[in-house]
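Think of the structure tokens as a kind of shorthand, similar to the way a musician reads notation: each symbol stands for something richer, in this case the local conformation of the backbone. In the example below we present two proteins back to back. Begin with the first one, reading the sequence and then the tokens, and try to describe in your own words what changes along the chain.
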Amino acid sequence: MTHETQNGKIPYYLIVMFLLLSVTIWVGGYLYYEDQKKEIKKDKLEDLSAIADLKVSQIVNWRQERLADANNIFDNKLIIPHIQQFLAGSSAYKQEIFRWLESIQKYYLYKNVILLDTEGNIRLKVINGQEVIGPDAKRLAEEAMQSRKIIFSDLYRSKVRDVIRLTIAVPLLASKGSDTIPIGVVLLRIDPYQFLYPLIQSWPTPSRTAETVLFRREGNEVLYLNELRHKKDTALNLRFSINEERLPAAMAMRGITGVNEGVDYRGVPVLAVAQPIPDSPWFLVTKVDRDEIFAPIYDRLGFVVFVVSLLILCTSITIGFIWRKQNAEFYREKYETEMGKRELAERYELLTRHANDIILSLDQDWKIVDANKRAVISYGYTLDELRQMNIKALRAPEARALLVSQMGQVQEHEGLVFETIHQKKDGTVFPVEVSSRAIEIEGGKVYQNIIRDISERKKAEADLLESEERLRAVIEAGMDGIIVVNEHGKIVLFNAAAEGLFLYSSDEALQKPASMLLLEETADAHQKRVEKFLSNGVGQCGHIGRRTERTFRRKDGSKFDGEITMAGGRSESARLVVVTIHDITERKKSEDEIRKLNEELEERVIQRTLQLEDINRRLEDEIIERNRAEAEISELNKLLQHRALELEAINKELEAFSYSVSHDLRAPLRSIDGFSKALLEDYHEKLEGEGRDYLQRIRRASQHMGQLIDDLLNLSRVARNEMHQDLVDLSELVKEIASDLQTARSDRIVKFIIEDGVTVKGDARLLCILLENLIGNAWKFTAKLSGPIIQFGVIQYEGKPAYFIRDNGAGFDITYADKLFGAFQRLHTQAEFPGTGIGLAIVYRIVQRHGGKVWAEGETGKGATFYFTL
């Protein structure tokens, strides 16, 4: 290399470096291009997978919503009896059933809703245009009635009207004894072009080729179920063999789902994700043309080629500059290297000669080739004498046998630290620590030994071991239990006296938590105090450094009282707590006996002096008791006053909230009702019958909402207002309410049977509201009778009076009695009996505030009885 540089030639290694760098740059550019290609492909596949998951989730949700609609019809036990009567020939409920079917068709967006009887005849229908029942629909209806289950059909093309449909057949089951029988079927017909196909065809991001395909298997063919983006009239028409090797839909049919590459129905290469639709025979493929995915990377190819060429040019210029510079720096570097070697050798010589440790250099035969000044002083040999010796001669006779194995380990591991015994020229032996390492010097192997005299350390270790043995002997001989706990709360020392106290052996106690020696109720608190001390010092634990008494637990579960002293300590690496425990069980017994004797003596003295001090004691006790009572009354008055102020503030906030809710909700309702009324009055002639009916419905709904707000506010006030306990004549209240109802509705004649003299203690205002709601309910539910009767009376229930309101009206199904007193719980439709479902909730709140109980009994068509206690 030197010769070529001096003759002005470019060294071969620079040429090789240039070629390697050029190849590296080209390879790096290619790898960058491929990496970008993979990243774009990965991102697009992740997008496709996410879109596929989204589409599958949307389709599953759509199917579940449709099944939920069908289940609502299937489980509607209130409408089934009406439909049964209608199908049997009665027209009493025809309009109601039609409106119910119409609401299902309108609000759930079904194409048609059709009611069939058991013969497959159309009895009622809500349709858009003409409708007939084809063989497919009849087959679904028969299957639903036979299985008594909801049938969700697949997509099919009607044989009658040549349209694509989905149909849900809901069997209508009526009770017959302990069994159920089908009485008809409701067909919910879905137009897939209305929601399903647009849902499948939509794509969340802009794309010119992206597409979602829905398909299923028919025999050995794949049948496409939806209209495709790049081909028209494909729904239920386009088919391919399941053996098409690269077709993503056929691959899915063969069990190859997830991400794959293939060729779509146009013969165009695509990236696709295929997934099955759960709980259906359908599969879904989301796909994008391969050319669209890789279009961005083709644009970057020219840029990559330009950058790679530019980097190669820069590399050639840099190599030339390096070559020019090497000629100038070659000799300077050589000179500096030689000077550095000389300076390093001088520093090494100075370090070894004047080091405090012995340094010996050995050849491969372990002969000493060099030694420092400390070696000469330590062994008593001259430097020349040491250079004539083998390292074995410096060892004590008893340590020479280990030399071969130890030096073998040095050679094997290229270094070792070990302890041995060396011998001076005068025969004195001393322990040493040797750090031996094999090093290469000018092609030869040299062993460098750094040797430290460890006589003082060995003497200190022996003294420490002796001190520890003495301390252990003192601890084991102690009469009190001594336990040492480390910073983790584990026992690290457990003396013999502790074994006798706790009945644990030392082996059983060591490394166990100290808390096992304490009662469970005090163990956690004590452990936390000890941990706090160990982490922060003595000042953080109140028990450290002073005597305290504590109850301990033995191995057999028995308890004993002990006096403990805790002191902080520290080992080489951790904090410790030393606990001394003295058994004071006998002392506690003696103290208890002395205390009992003192108590008996005090009792005798008190009895002796009782007669003399009786009058004064009574006066003092009376004064103290009176002062204490006055103080307690004063505190209670303050507390009651504070509670009253808090309650008043809460009530004001609730009242303000109720007013705000009432005002904010009523304002838009009044606007809805007012504008609806204006439309009816001002545009009556311009509105068709259906438009006027819609506005009437809006008015009724807004008025009903207003009534709901009033009832909710009443319910809130009932639970919030202060109660006043008075003697209330319930009989008179019932008579007043009955009189008011008769006056307000003179067109009705209702017979009231009222028991006289029924009085209770309670809040007259709340009890009046309670009776108004119960009697108002009875009045409402007897409206359709020719001879209505409402009765008020009292019976005995569980040893106390229970008051009741009874009527012979519509009654209710006793199965739903537990829902009567919940807010908005109604057992009758709004058309049958208007109301909001709040009245009985108010009744329940009032009875609850009086500490009573309310319940109801009834039977459909035979009236109802409401009972309450106070």
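Once you have a description of the first chain, move to the second and do the same.
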Amino acid sequence: MPQQQKNRQFNGFKEAIQRCWMPLLLGFVATIAVLGVWQQCLVQEQLTIIAAQRSPLLTGLILWGGLASAWMLAFTVYLIQHSKSQAQHTRTINQQLQDEIRERQQVEEALRQSRATKQAIIEAIPDLLIRMRSDGSYVEFVANRQFNIVNPERQRQNTSAYTVLPLALAELRMFYTQQALQTKAIQVYEQEILIKNRQHYEEVRIVPILQDEVLVMVRDISARKRTEMALQRSEERLKLALEASGDGLWDWNIQTGEVYFSSSYLGMLGYAADEFPSSVETWKHLIHPEDEPWVFDTLNAHLQDAKAQYAFDYRVKTKSGEWKWIANYGRVVAFDQQNQPLRMIGTHKDISDRKYKETMLQQAMEAAEAANQAKSMFLANMSHELRTSLNVILGFSELMADDSSLTSSQQQDLQTIRRSGAHLLSLINDILDLSKIEAGRSTLEETGFDLLALLQTLRTMMSERAMSKHLQLEFEIAPEVPQFVIADEQKLCQILLNLLSNAIKFTDQGSVVLRVQADGLPSSLLPLLLQFQVVDTGVGIAANEQTLIFDAFVQAKAGKKVNSGTGLGLTISRKLLELMGGQMSLQSAVNAGSTFTITVPVRPTSSVDLLSEQLSRPVIGLVPGQPHRRILVVDDQYENRLLLVRLLTRLGLDVREAATGQEAVQIWKEWHPDLTWMDIRMSDIDGYEVTRQIRAMEVTKTVIIALTAQAAQSDRALALAVGCDDYITKPFQEDTLLLKLKKHLGLEYLYAESNPYSNLSSVDSLDPDADAAPLLDLSILAQLPADWLAALENAAVCGNDRVITGLVAQLSPEFASLSLQLIDYANHFQFNRILQLIHRISP
């Protein structure tokens, strides 16, 4: 009997004694008390009467009734005491049962948690765990769900290594099991096993746990083994590739300083393996002294930041003492936990032959460049002789064209000569321009100029050619494009002129559009990027020709069919654009048109920064027969109104003026002018509001041009946004004002004759045999400096009217008549007459 049960029985016996002694004692005391009373009554003879009056039976009943009452009282007390004791005992037993239940639940919960923990640990362990006896029989094994080497559903009883594994693997396991039991040490080995027609690789660990039992842990290492084998194959292929290419391999342990050098590496330097210590110091001593500083700068930069490239060519000393050029490539491939480099691998390649060829090629290129420079300089220096002779041919052919005695056949032959001469002149101009660029003699000449006026000039020049082919020529200028910029005006004009000419030349129907936009905020300090797009609907350019057309003397198929041009225009334009810091791109498709896009950096400026405008013939009035035009001048400054009114009334225009915004609105309502010059900044109502009110009243749209001293682009954009048709700033040039009138109203002007001799319309007067002294005193021309005359001659040969105008502006007032004559020739592009004047004084 368990000791705990004996203890409970003894405790119950004690509790019964404790419950019974009180009632027994009480009954005993009650009996003694009844007997004592009875005895006293007998002594005192007080029972005589009772005895006399009652029978003995009644006396006995009374006596025994007292005794019974006493014992009944005692028994009642006993029952009450026993009931209380029983209830207390029940509570005690109940508490003990609850404690035992609670204790059992805690044990069961702990056991459940232990089992769950054990199961979680087992599931987390990637190993198959086998408890195995020394004879190979399995005592127990547990497997992770993903472990597929042993089927978890296999009957665990009567299972052994021989029933699970192939015989060879079972014997191998038993061998290592005996080794583990004998040596009391862990045994580790690897094995291969075929499962479901797939080769698996396992790592097996056998741990001795009892005298004749071991714990076998099997881990599937198939993924790792396949990776290792793939890496091994990759290394083998790399080794074969390096050997085939002749490259050497180096592997540097950065922590120890040891470096592995492959046989190919050592072979290219002439060393055997035992002659070349495997350390980075050995490599360091072989680097050419001139290369060593930057080589280690490159290396340290790569060690500090693996993104920095480690690839360069340098010189290394061979065993024989010669220097070899080596191409060195490498990168860090291993880092520690602090991201410090641990290992670096790279290759060496002998490039001595390549370097020798590069040196020879460089020398050949330098020689070719020198020859090209000599050629370019020769062509540039020959410009005078070539163009002078050609201008004589063209001049006399023009002179002969006025001879009425020529027959029709002779006139045709003469026109052929003129066309061929013009084509040859264009070819010579392009070649000389290109040679000047290649010779490095073309430089930027940045000045301030009116960009909008330049674009208007281009449109005027191209309009006739476009109209002759029935093409629509459009200029789309964005509001943010500044009016005044600083750039090389002549080169920009040449580039745009070439692109527009090509577009018209290769377009038979449709349109040619020039779009101008600005990218950036206008600032006199920061450059602004202007974008010009020349869009045509012409023949287009095939994709395989779009890069070739920028080469010299190369034309697309369409250009060859037209049979005009030199094939240098785009080449020169792109080179000039590169000189200006710009770029050119092309989008085109055959029979779908072309879009040439150029970007040019410029610096916006105000009109006061411009150089003096070129001289031109003064306008004296309007060509008769034009529609009557009414002009309204709105400005709150009297002097500004007076200037505009005088300029406009001198032309014969009908002009009215308004000093306030309110007055302007009233005059406009009553008079309806064709064009309104609108001052923006006024005291009462600004020009923006006046423009809005006019636009709200008008039925037929009229022209409103904003006029303000503010040069900010925001003012110009706002003026255009509220309804103004154009915008100019003060102080303005008269030519700009006249161009705006011509643009918006289509006015045609009468020009004053430049000088009394401007009526010369042929070369006859410049013939050496003609008496031109009464017309022009050539002795005045002979007084000018020789270098000035040379510059004038060069400008005339190049056909550069702007340079001629600039040279004339340098003359003093005493040469006024000569200045007017030269300006007239330049404005009419009669450069051959200027050359003949120069040749008359210096034959």
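Compare your description with these statements about the second chain. The first strand starts at residue 127 and ends at 133.
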